[in-house]
C-alpha cells in the first residue's frame, strides 16, 4: 500500500470523521437495526407453532397487528424527540424497551397476553430504524451517506434469510433447556440488545436538550387516533369484511383523526410532530408519496412471494426464506452499487427512476409464473425486483434528509420510515385481499379445466375424500394438508393459486407505475457535502455572528451618541484594541470561537448558541466518543 493510499484511507470524511471512525459507529447502529429486523422475520416464521402451543391460533393475527400499530405510531415521535433531546438517549431507550418487551414475550401465557407484550415491544422497535438513519445523517454528508446505508440494506437482507432459519429451528423444538423452543425466539433478542446498548453507549456522546422546542402531545394523540383505526382495518378487514360496521367505524375515526392531526400540526408550527411546512418543499412532498408507494411494493411483495413458494412449490417457511435469497442479493447489490455511484457523482435522481422501472419489469415477469415454472426462472425475476428495490429505498431516505434543515433531520427520517410503513401495511392488506379474493374462483376454474385429464379422473375416482378436502372452501385456511394429497388432485389447486398470484403482481406493477411517475417528477436538490453535524455548526456560527453584529451595532450607536471626538479618533487608530462587544458575545463566548468550530476529527466543541440557533440537538451525539472509538480500534 502506498503512502497516498494510506492517507486517503484515514482522511476525514466530509462529516469530519475518518472512515474507520464512521464504521465503528455504523457497527453499533447495525446491532440495533438487526435486532428489530431479525425479530420480525423470526416471529413470522414461528407464529403457527406459537399459536399451537398457546391454543390460540385464531388470535395469531393480533400478535402481528399489535406490534405493527405501536411501532408505526411511535416512529414520528422518536424522530421529533431526537431532534429536541438528542439521538443517543432516545436510541438507548428504544433498545431498552425492545429488550424488556422481548423478555416479557418469552414468558407469555396465552396469545392475547403475547399480543399485549408485542405491543410493548413495538414501542421500542419504532425508534430503531429511523434513529439509526438519523444518526447516520448527523455524521456523514448526504453525498457520502448512500454507500454507508448499503450496510443497513445488507443487515435487512441478512435478517430476512437468517430469520426463517432461526425461527424454524427454534420453533421446531418441543423443548430447549426445559422451555418451549418458540420462547427462545424472543429471548435471543436479549444478548443482541445488550451488545447494542454497550456499543451505542461507547461510541455515541450524550445528547443535549434544545430548549426552544415544545413536545407536540396533541399531535401525538391525533396521529394515534388517525393511524390506529386504519391499521386495524388494514390488518383485519379481510376477516371483518371491508364494508362491515366495524370497518366503516374505523374509516370514519381514521379520517376524523387525520383532520384533527392536520389542525393540531398547523397550530404547533415548527414544534409540530411533523411540521406541515416541510411539505411545501416539492422534494419532501413527492418523496413522502414515493415512500408510500415503495412501502406498498416492498412489503406487499415480501408478503406474497413466500406464499407462492410455500403453497405452490411446497417449500417450508425455512426453505422459503432461503429461496428468497436472490431477491435479497439483488437488494444488497443494487444498494451498494448505487450508493457508491451517488457518492462519486453527487446525483441521486436517476436511481429511483431506474429502480421503479426494474420493479415494474420484475412484477410483470412474476405475473407470468405458473405452477410449473422452474425455480431458477422465478429466482431471476425476484433478483430483478430486488435490484429495483435496492436502488430506490436508501436513495429516497437520503433525498428526504437532504431537503430539510439540520434541525429537522430526525423528523424527515422518521417521516420516511413512517410513510413507508403505512404503505407497507396498505400493500400487504390490498395484495392479500386480492389474492384470497380471487383464489377460490381461480381454483374452481382450474379444477373444471382438469376434468378432461385422464390422470385427474383416475386419481379422483381412487381418492374421492381427498378431492372433497382439496376443493372445500376451507382449504385456503390451512394448506399443510396439500403435501399429503395425490399430486394429480393437488395440481389444479396449484394452478388456480398461481393464477391468482398473477393478478396480484399485475396490480403491483400498476402501483409501481405510479411510483415511476413520482420518481420522474422528484426534484434533485444538490447534495450537501457536509454532515448534519457540520451543517448545524455552520448554522449556529452564522446565528452567533449575526448576534455579535447586532451587539456591535448597538454598542457603536450608544458610543457615537456619548463619546467625545478624541475617543472616536482612538477607536479608529491603527493597533487599537477592538471594542468589548466585538470580542464577546452574550454569555461571554468569543466571536471567533462561535463562528469557527474546531476541525478535530470527531472531537469538536459545539459552538455557542447552536441549540437555540436551529442546530439539531442530536448533532452533538457522536463526535467525541466516536473519535475515541476510532482511535481505540
UniProtKB/TrEMBL annotation:
InterPro entries: EmrB-like (IPR004638), MFS (IPR011701), MFS_dom (IPR020846), MFS_trans_sf (IPR036259). GO terms for molecular function: transmembrane transporter activity. It is a multi-pass membrane protein. The keyword Transmembrane helix applies. It is found in: Cell membrane. GO terms for cellular component: plasma membrane. Residues 25-527 form the Major facilitator superfamily (MFS) profile domain. CDD domains: MFS_Azr1_MDR_like. Residues 600-610 have a biased composition (Low complexity). Keywords: Cell membrane, Membrane, Transmembrane, Transmembrane helix, Transport. The chain crosses the membrane at residues 25-47, 59-78, 90-109, 115-136, 148-172, 184-204, 216-234, 240-263, 284-308, 320-339, 351-371, 383-405, 417-439, 503-522. Residues 569-633 are annotated as: Disordered. NCBIfam families: efflux_EmrB. PANTHER family: COMD, MAJOR FACILITATOR SUPERFAMILY. Belongs to the major facilitator superfamily. TCR/Tet family. This is MFS transporter. It comes from Parafrankia colletiae.
Amino acid at each position: 500500500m502506498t503512502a497516498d493510499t494510506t492517507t486517503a484511507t484515514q482522511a476525514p470524511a466530509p462529516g469530519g470523521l475518518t472512515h474507520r471512525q464512521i464504521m465503528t459507529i455504523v457497527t453499533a447502529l447495525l446491532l440495533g437495526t438487526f435486532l428489530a429486523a431479525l425479530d420480525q422475520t423470526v416471529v413470522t416464521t414461528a407464529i403457527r407453532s406459537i399459536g399451537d402451543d398457546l391454543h390460540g391460533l385464531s388470535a395469531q393475527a393480533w400478535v402481528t397487528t399489535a406490534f405493527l400499530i405501536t411501532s408505526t405510531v411511535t416512529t414520528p415521535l422518536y424522530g421529533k424527540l431526537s431532534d429536541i433531546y438528542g439521538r443517543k438517549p432516545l436510541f438507548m431507550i428504544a433498545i431498552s424497551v425492545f429488550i424488556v418487551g422481548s423478555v416479557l414475550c418469552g414468558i407469555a401465557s396465552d396469545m392475547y397476553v403475547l399480543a399485549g407484550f408485542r405491543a410493548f415491544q413495538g414501542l421500542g422497535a419504532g425508534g430503531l430504524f429511523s434513529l439509526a438513519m438519523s444518526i447516520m445523517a448527523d455524521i456523514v454528508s448526504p453525498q457520502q451517506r448512500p454507500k454507508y446505508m448499503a450496510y443497513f440494506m445488507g443487515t435487512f437482507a441478512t435478517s430476512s434469510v437468517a430469520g426463517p432459519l432461526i425461527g424454524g429451528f427454534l420453533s421446531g423444538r418441543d423443548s430447549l433447556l426445559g422451555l418451549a423452543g418458540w420462547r427462545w425466539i424472543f429471548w435471543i433478542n436479549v444478548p443482541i440488545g445488550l451488545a447494542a446498548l454497550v456499543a451505542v453507549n461507547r461510541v455515541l456522546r450524550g445528547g443535549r436538550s434544545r430548549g426552544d422546542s415544545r413536545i407536540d402531545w396533541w399531535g401525538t394523540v391525533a396521529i394515534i387516533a388517525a393511524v390506529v383505526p386504519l391499521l386495524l382495518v388494514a390488518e383485519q378487514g379481510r376477516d371483518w369484511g371491508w364494508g362491515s360496521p366495524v370497518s366503516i367505524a374505523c374509516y370514519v375515526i381514521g379520517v376524523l383523526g387525520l383532520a384533527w392531526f392536520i389542525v393540531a400540526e398547523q397550530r404547533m408550527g415548527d414544534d409540530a410532530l411533523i411540521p406541515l411546512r416541510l411539505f411545501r418543499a416539492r422534494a419532501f412532498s413527492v418523496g413522502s408519496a414515493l415512500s408510500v408507494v415503495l412501502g406498498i411494493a416492498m412489503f406487499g411483495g415480501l408478503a406474497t412471494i413466500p406464499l407462492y413458494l410455500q403453497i405452490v412449490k411446497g417449500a417450508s417457511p425455512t426453505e422459503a426464506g432461503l429461496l428468497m435469497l436472490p431477491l435479497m442479493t439483488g437488494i444488497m447489490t443494487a444498494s451498494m452499487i448505487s450508493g457508491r455511484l451517488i457518492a462519486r457523482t453527487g446525483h441521486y435522481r436517476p436511481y429511483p427512476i431506474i429502480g421503479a422501472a426494474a420493479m415494474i419489469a420484475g412484477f410483470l415477469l412474476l405475473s407470468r409464473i405458473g405452477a410449473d415454472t422452474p425455480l431458477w426462472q422465478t429466482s431471476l425475476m425476484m433478483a430483478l425486483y430486488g435490484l429495483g428495490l435496492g436502488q430506490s429505498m436508501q436513495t429516497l431516505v437520503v433525498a428526504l434528509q437532504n431537503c430539510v434543515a439540520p434541525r429537522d433531520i430526525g423528523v424527515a427520517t422518521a417521516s420516511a420510515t413512517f410513510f413507508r410503513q403505512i404503505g407497507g401495511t396498505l400493500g400487504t392488506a390490498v395484495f392479500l385481499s386480492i389474492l384470497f379474493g380471487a383464489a377460490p374462483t381461480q381454483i374452481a376454474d382450474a379444477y373444471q379445466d382438469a376434468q378432461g385429464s385422464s390422470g385427474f379422473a383416475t386419481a379422483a375416482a381412487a381418492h374421492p375424500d381427498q378431492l372433497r378436502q382439496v376443493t372445500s372452501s376451507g382449504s385456503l385456511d390451512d394448506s399443510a394438508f396439500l403435501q399429503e394429497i395425490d399430486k394429480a388432485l393437488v395440481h389444479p389447486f396449484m394452478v388456480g393459486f398461481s393464477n391468482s398470484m398473477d393478478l396480484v403482481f399485475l396490480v403491483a406493477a400498476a402501483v409501481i407505475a405510479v411510483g415511476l411517475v413520482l420518481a420522474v417528477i422528484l426534484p434533485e436538490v444538490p447534495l450537501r457535502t457536509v454532515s448534519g453535524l457540520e451543517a448545524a455548526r455552520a448554522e449556529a456560527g452564522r446565528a452567533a455572528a449575526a448576534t455579535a453584529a447586532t451587539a456591535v451595532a448597538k454598542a457603536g450607536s450608544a458610543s457615537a451618541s456619548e463619546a467625545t471626538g478624541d475617543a472616536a479618533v482612538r477607536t479608529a487608530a491603527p493597533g487599537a484594541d477592538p471594542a468589548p462587544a466585538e470580542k464577546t458575545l452574550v454569555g461571554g463566548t468569543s466571536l471567533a470561537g462561535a463562528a469557527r468550530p474546531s476541525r478535530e476529527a470527531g472531537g469538536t466543541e459545539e459552538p455557542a448558541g447552536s441549540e437555540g440557533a436551529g442546530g439539531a440537538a442530536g448533532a452533538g451525539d457522536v463526535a467525541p466518543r466516536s473519535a475515541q472509538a476510532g482511535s481505540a480500534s
